[in-house]
Amino acid sequence: MKQSTEDLLNQITNYINEILQDQQGTGLSVSIVKDKDIIYSKGFGHSRIQPDMKPINGDTMMSIQSISKNFMALSIMQLAGKGLIALDDPVVQHLPYFRTRDKQQSDTITIRHLLTHTAGFPSELGIANMIAPNVREIFSDTPTEFQEALDYYQLTEEEIDRIESREDITRWFQKVELEYPVGQGWNYCTDSYVILADLFEKVSGSQWETHLKEEILTPLNMNRTTSNPDRVQQDKNSARYYLGKERVETPFPKNPISAPIGYLYSTANDLANYLAFHLNKEPEILSSGLIEEMQTPFHLVSEEWQFGSDVRSYGLAWFTDKHKGHRIVEHGGGQMAVRSLMTILPELELGVVVLLNFDGTAHHDICDKIIDLFIEA
Fold this sequence. Notes:
Strand 6 and strand 7 form a beta hairpin. The protein has an eight-stranded antiparallel β-sheet, with helices on both faces. Strands 3-4 form a two-stranded antiparallel sheet. Strands 5-8 form a two-stranded antiparallel sheet. The radius of gyration is 20 Å and the shape is globular. The chain contains 17 helices and 14 strands. The longest helix has 15 residues, at about 5-20. With about 375 residues, the protein is of the alpha+beta class. The chain is about 35% helix and about 15% strand.
């Protein structure tokens, strides 16, 4: 006998409550899109536990980390839709100062290579994250931790202090040695998405954040999504992040120059609206053909990103996979005590958003459970 939607959603609530039993006050928010509607929006636990407990809900503003890359990619696709760029344009066509140590090689790197993490870059560059304004606070557990982080990434304090713009990040890449021939491998290089923002701004003549608000967030009714960390910190319904069993509050994730790699903030409900757009291709802020191109596998991911799947691939800021015979299109994010995940199953017209303010894998467990229940229903 077919389950009613109400029974299905009750099972989801019960499962999440079980997951949260050991979380000591921290919390998560979940939204589910079916067809064109948000059919489930709930918060569990708390967005803040100090100095006062504050309940979390579907409108709580939270860091979404690498989900931010999807918004950068969508912006680039909008430029392509207007004919201002082609994805296979060499980056140097639009940013003549872009190069790596091997200029001959890097002159062949295209916009598509940046979007798909196939440019040849190493994955552990660190430059985009290490310029965070509170980076010294992040690496302050021991007197030497900040210097150890610099040494790990082969950076100097003077080097990161010189970065004042996205163009500076692009120019910094001249010291990078490619790890594999352009287009012939896959390495998740978060820093490359700052180059995309630089390219976007040089081609469009406008600040990326302005475009994001006017051409993406406002049309999609994502009114509680922003790149402004001050706005989020001042909002009474916004999360803080707690690490480990001791629930130690972590430094607030903020990094305006590197916003496109992982420093946007959103809510479960806003991201549900975003998934509804990707599922239904309306409102038409991007053609359906270009939306499909974003969701199309481009290259198999490296072994450490396969998670047991031999078909897991990367498109244009989307991971693609199969689950029980169904196509999965998703992107997650994480840093210290931030966890985020948005997933769509196009054939089921299903979208799931899970945002946490604690570390661990609960976001994947919850998403998998929701998907399984809908597949079996």
